[in-house]
Every structure is written in C-alpha cells, then in structure tokens.
Amino acid sequence: MSWTSITTSHDAITLTRAEHIRRTHTRIRRGLRKICGECGNRWGRYGCALHTWAVDILSRMSRIVVPDPPQRPKHRHRRHYTQLLMTGAAQARALYRTRPLPG
C-alpha cells in the first residue's frame, strides 16, 4: 500500500491493531519453554500466531513503493508458516468482533 493511496477506515483499524499486537506480544521464558507474554501461546521460530499475523500484515501494507514488483512465488512459505498466519488472522478477527469499533 503506497503512502499516497487512500487509507480506508478498515485499513486504518487493521494497521492500528496489528501495530499494537506487534508491540505487546513479546517472548518470555517459563523454565525451558518460550511462550508469548501477552497471550500465553507457544513462541515458535516466527513468534506466536498473533505476532506472526501482525508482522505479516504490517509488511504487506508497508509504505515502500516498488514501481515494478515481481510476482509473488506460489510456494514462498512453508505449510507451518502459512498455517500460523491463518491462525493469527482468525484470532484477530475474533478480537475485532468482541471490541466495539471506534467512532
């Protein structure tokens, strides 16, 4: 998403929520395990599911403008990473439903 493009209210809410999730979900250690300090889920290679979703959303909606971007490869991510993104997206959608929209 270019910085010159129009940001709809849905995009602004998504970006705000993703930025908040990225800041608050951090890794902590409990014994020998790594977990998320905010939601308590397992912290894997890419973080918890919500943190991974937030980082992916923020990177896809970045303000970097590439004039002639290459096509995204079909098999860019492994199955586990894609599944983690889907889980985070489902959790974020559930959070949207439980919280009232601003305005």
Question: Which SSEs are present, and which pair or pack?
Answer:
Layout: H1 9-24, E1 27-30, E2 33-36, H2 49-60, H3 79-98
Antiparallel strand pairs: 1-2
Helix pairs in contact: 1-2, 2-3
Can you describe what's shown?
The protein is mainly alpha-helical and 103 residues long. It has one domain. It has three helices and two strands. The protein has helices spanning 9-24, 49-60, 79-98; strands spanning 27-30, 33-36. A hairpin with a 2-residue loop joins strand 1 (27-30) and strand 2. Helix 2 packs across helix 3 (79-98). It is globular, with a radius of gyration of 15 Å. The relative contact order is 0.17. The mean pLDDT is 76.
Give a quick rundown of the structure.
The chain has helices spanning 9-24, 49-60, 79-98, and strands at residues 27-30, 33-36.
